Amino acid sequence: MRPFSYTTVSSVRSAVLQVSPDPKAQYVAGATEVLNLVREGQIAADRLVDIRALPLTSIRAGADGLHIGALARHVENHPVVRRDYPVLAQALLAGASPQVRNMFTPGGNLLQRTRCSYYRDVSFACNRREPGSGCGALEGNNRYNAIFGGSDHCIAVHPSDLAVALTALDAVARTQGPAGARAIPIEELHRLPGEEPHRETVLEHGELITGIDVPASRFAARSHYLKIRDRASFAFALVSVAVAVDVRRGVVRDCRIALGGVAPRPWRARAAEAALTGKPLNEASRRAAGKAAASGAVPRRHNRFKVAMVERAVARALSEVED
Amino acid sequence: MSAVGQPLARVEGRLKVTGAARYTADLPQDDGKDLVHAVAVCATVAKGRITSIDARQARAAGGVLELITHRNAPRLRPVPAQEVFGPAHETLLVLQDDRVHYSGQPVAVVVADTLENATHAASLVRVEYAAERPVATLFEGIDDAFDSPRHAPPATVGDADRGLAEAAVVIDRTYTTPAQHHHPMETMATTVRWTAEEVTVHVSTQTISMIRDGLATTFGLRPEQVRVVSEFLGGGFGGKGAWCWPSVVTAMAARLTGRQVRLVTTRRQMFAATGQRPHSVQRVRLGARRDGVLTAIAQDCVGDTSAFYDTPPFFIGAATPVPYAAPNIRTTQRFVRVNCQTPVPMRSPVEGVGLVSIESAMDELAAELGVDPLELRRRNYAERDPNSGLPWSSNGLLECYERGARRFGWPERNPKPRSMRDGRYLVGWGMATAVRHAGSDPTSALVRLGADGRAVVQIGSQDLGTGTFTIMTQVAADALGVPVAMMRAELGDTDLPNGGGSFGSHTAASVAAAARLAGEALRAKVIRIAVADDGSPLSGASPDDVLVDDGYLFVRGDRSRGERYAQILRRNRLQAVDATGEHTPPPREGATVARWAFGADFTEVKVDPELGTVRVTRHVKAIEAGRIINPRTARSQVIGGVVMGIGQALTEATEVDRRDARITNASFWGYHVPVNADVPDIDAIFVERDDPHIPGSVKGLGEIATIGTAPAIANAVFHATGKRVRDLPITPDKLL
Ligand SMILES: Cc1cc2nc3c(=O)[nH]c(=O)nc-3n(C[C@H](O)[C@H](O)[C@H](O)COP(=O)(O)OP(=O)(O)OC[C@H]3O[C@@H](n4cnc5c(N)ncnc54)[C@H](O)[C@@H]3O)c2cc1C
Ligand code: SF4
Predict the structure, then answer these.
(1) Which of A158, A322, B342, B614 is the most exposed place for a label (fewest CB within 10 A)?
(2) In the CATH scheme, what is the homologous superfamily, with its name and number, of domain A59-323?
(3) In the annotation, is B703 catalytic?
(4) pTM metric for this prediction
């Protein structure tokens, strides 16, 4: 593998100072993703800066919501998360395997790269990995690729389950960059590919995710994550759905529906949310929301099934939060 | 007490779970000071010519010792196909010319002081190709499909066309099975030291003798100059049974550098290192009377083979005439040249692929006739082998049906599809028949007894992780008459007496037969010494009257007149006594019986009808494989086999891009083998039979353990959903 240097840092400031000016430097947290990428050559890092010693491991729950450090461990086991934000715990448990989860971090999870087959094998053409080289997936084996948000240059899917649940909870990422701190809605963290798929996120190089804020909401407690995959566990989603509903006096006052496995970023199904809001939660409204969620899809040769799968998955996930 | 039949724990189990077992990639530990590492650069086109290789950057990288391409590689001699198994003629190709025949073919090998340096340098080698349009899949080349020049189809029985014409009901269906890869946990590892006197090869292989003979031929050496060692294997499933390039290029690198060289293929490279289960299309026509009695079976298969291999690998319909007593049976196969690595066996190259369609079609026939699928199979039970007309050497199939069905609760099945539910899930029950030819290979064993009363049994066989060490120990201990604690097994070295390949479900039968003969010969030898020895209490006894129990030899009827093995050896100042045994399988020609193992799979699936997900929730497998040497390791085999069957039915397929014939899911996360959550409780039933025509009545379990599982699951999915998926694997999208 490509030789690289490895250093550890103990403050957020020095972390940012080390990585920002060096285009060939990368943070490493749990290393479950970045080491594979370096080994296989998807990213050319000459320098890995290990951030595991940073004080970003806490999980705090209060009246204003949930604050998750970028390096927090086993968020899915936190009692408040399990009780008040079930979609979050479920999404984490549906991701990867216990072994990978023992290592990984929330920050690293959000910034994992696509699992598009052509991206992951450096001998294939891929605009996202190598600008201008072409997109292997557009006319190739695109069963796992996007039906929303893609472009003629890239139809990658972002594979994080956590990000889908966070999107349904209106969460934001807190970051620290050379220019200071900012907050970025999780939904907007990843860019849609457009003509520049290689610009994967809105982060500046060296901008560090320090934590994730999940605001208190009336819908978080009544939430659910559903993931459909090719085997029972340890597989990326074909389609996944995070739903969160605020139902009062039999009517959906507010809701969030976010999709995974279908787009280059967690995909808010706003048409489905609109279709459901103001309706009682029942078989008919669930089906209608499912239909709305799938509307506007642009399927490709091998992933047409995802359209029907989205419809059904949304309806099913909503049935899980019905009384 | 007899050790055979006891659930002895794996004798090497402790070594494995404590990490003390040295697998090939761990070797050598002791003299590894001059060990260097090789990494292969593999073709990224599936067909074409190499136009240039720019190795300047790679050569200049740190630690690089050698860079081998077709320009400077040692010239190889072709290995005749009968000498090795698998893509023999590929030896012509490994770094011998500029032609590329499949994506993943090695085009260069970098040798460096560390694995990291070698890997890095390999990534710097720039290879240019003049790519040509490859044949990417079977379907593309199907119009050019050809008949095998080498294999005659199995004997046809009667006249299938007439049988179909006479049938009251005809089922005519086409099924496809995908290419699959074996995915042993341990990737291919080879370490070679090449000196003027000897070439020593540590390699993860299912056949050390084949690697020895193949390397000797291809490098122009005498077989005695090559020593091949393979002590512990992390699985193989057929993928390590064939002749393949990793050992050849590692040997080249060792010869050129004069260093001890290790090459471990990456997981990605495993998709082109050793071959795969072929992709197949199988058209089946079953003709039957209204009562379900078959009048004809016709099966026409097309399978892929590689573009460069001139001997199509095997005939997937070879067992089609075996399970059912149809008066008219025909099976054909044509081959399509595809730019892929040459197919090799995968846990039954024949029955594991070719019976998928037959067992699915039987289920379709049952549904069509309104006959219970198990009853349909019973009605077509074959009293003799329909193919050869010979009587069975033994056959426990009916008892497998009966005991499997009883354990599973099959009579409770509501025959109507979509009739059984568990909450939101549709429940389906399916079954299938399994058959597998029972054979063995020529095998030699040596048993040596020391003056301390301890013994060792040696066979140049391999243990895939299936329990060969353990059963060798059990059989040899019984044959000699000592407790298992006094017997040790050694295998995996061509310096040991010649063993065969660990494939074809032959290992247990071969190894047990040879170990028994050697143990018995040694026992007789020591008895002869004792009865001729004035100092022995056994002196003067007839050898036939001397019995052995627990290492104690005594005269029949008088247990007090005897002594222990160790006493005999010591008094006669013998450090050790040994004896050999040679197992020669009965010739296939002129056989008077048909030797087969049998089984029946019963399975329950739960299908989410909205989302298309399928879970296997129960599985019962009843197997008649003669006598079971060790019920514990045997049960493990069945569990592993059923898990592979679940993968074949539901999750596994090698995906190829139709434009360039390149595999797009060459990883463990992209190619889905079942995980624990996919695997239910697996219930193994052994229907035991004495078989007078098979030494020790050992028929072998390796493949019958998985044959039948996939079609049983596919049949259960139909029963659950009313939907027949004829294209494996049954992923959620196919059920939406
Ligand atoms: C076999 C396998 C299966 C998997 N299945 C799933 C699945 O089903 N669902 C799922 O969601 N995920 C899955 N994953 C992905 C897994 O969740 C990610 O690998 C993991 O979350 C990455 O976290 P990490 O801490 O190890 O990141 P690292 O590997 O350390 O880093 C990943 C990337 O994030 C950057 N980074 C890390 N932390 C920060 C930070 N705080 N600020 C800025 N940049 C940062 C790194 O520079 C790097 O580019 C799977 C992974 C594997 C290997
Ligand atoms: S879809 Fe995107 S990631 Fe995949 S090959 Fe195309 S450009 Fe690359």
Answers:
(1) A322
(2) CO dehydrogenase flavoprotein, C-terminal domain (3.30.390.50)
(3) yes
(4) 0.97
